[in-house]
Specification:
Blueprint (H helix, E strand, L loop, with lengths): L7 H14 L5 H8 L4 H18 L10 H52 L8 H131 L4 H52 L8
């Protein structure tokens, strides 16, 4: 469970700062921006931020196309449509007008031809003139048909240009989709690389914590054993000192009581002095043992302080003893 020192919002703001700088967010960089916080706490908040980012990541849409490209595509499309519409409307109107005129003229020609048949006897002298007018009408129809063919050819050219514009727009869309796919692939590969690095750092951090905790436990146990042994030795030494004092007092009383008998007193005194010498030798030995134990305790305290200093470098709370 994360400690209350560094909150998720603090880590999120630090990540925003790194992204604005164009730097990839990482645990060490986030901690550098915050200036505080343990690696474990920052790692938990960083993992939560990545999970939220992955959950809220949207698929690219048409709005993701760069605005200049989108504007160019729309402009080409509108120009092609307007150009095709204007050209087709003009030629269609002209062709319809000419065809209608040709039809009306043909109808008039047919009526005139019928009248000419009916009045064949009366208008023989005008036959050449009617033939000429018919040829002119035929030439006009031919021109109208040619104009219609030109209009159709122009319409085909406009359709081809429109199809080319649509192909260019499709190629632009496909190019954008390809770039977006490559960008998404690159982002995914980068996220996987960062995730793997973070996982490795967390594993190394956990291994270091485990080794330091094991070393600290060993130091604590060794200290407890040393203190227990030292206390036992002190108790034994104090007991022997008490016994020595008792023996010395007894010897002094015996020496006072037997002063009358010089030989017995001398013998008793010699024996008491030997016993006293032995007791003093034992006292000195125990004092030497006590000094050695204190030296061992001092060494253990130095090792414990060194272990606590190493734990402090990885942001672990110091051991209270």
């Amino acid at each position: 469970m994360a400690r209350s020192g560094v909150q998720f919002e603090d880590v999120q703001r630090a990540i925003d700062v790194l992204l604005k700088r164009g730097e990839a967010p990482g645990i060490q960089k986030i901690r550098d921006v915050l200036g505080t916080g343990s690696f474990t706490t920052i790692s938990e908040h960083f993992r939560e931020w990545r999970e939220q980012r992955d959950a809220n990541r949207d698929q690219p849409t048409w709005q993701d196309i760069p605005e200049p490209v989108e504007t160019l595509v729309h402009s080409l499309w509108e120009q092609a449509q307007q150009h095709a519409s204007d050209g087709l409307s003009h030629y269609r109107e002209e062709a319809d007008r000419l065809v209608e005129e040709a039809r009306e003229q043909a109808q008039r020609s047919r009526r005139e031809a019928e009248d000419a048949l009916q009045r064949e006897a009366a208008i023989n002298e005008h036959w050449l003139q009617a033939q000429t007018r018919l040829q002119e009408h035929s030439a006009l129809i031919a021109r109208l048909e040619a104009a219609q063919q030109a209009a159709e050819q122009r319409e085909n050219e406009l359709n081809q240009r429109l199809a080319a514009a649509e192909r260019q727009a499709g190629e632009a869309r496909q190019s954008l989709r390809d770039e977006q796919t490559q960008h998404q692939t690159a982002l995914k590969a980068r996220d996987e690389h960062w995730s793997e690095q973070l996982k490795q750092e967390e594993q190394r951090h956990e291994a270091a914590e485990a080794r330091l905790m094991a070393l600290l436990d060993d130091a604590r146990q060794e200290k407890q054993r040393s203190e227990k042994t030292h206390n036992q030795r002190l108790e034994t030494l104090e007991k022997r000192l008490a016994e020595a004092d008792t023996d010395r007092q007894a010897l002094r009383r015996s020496l006072s009581e037997e002063q009358a008998n010089h030989r017995e007193t001398q013998w008793s005194l010699s024996k008491a002095e030997d016993a006293l010498s032995e007791s003093e030798r034992r006292v000195r030995q125990h004092l030497a043992d006590r000094a050695e134990n204190e030296k061992v305790v001092a060494q253990l305290r130095e090792r414990l302080q060194d272990a606590e200093a190493r734990l402090a470098r990885v942001n672990l709370p110091p051991f209270v003893y």
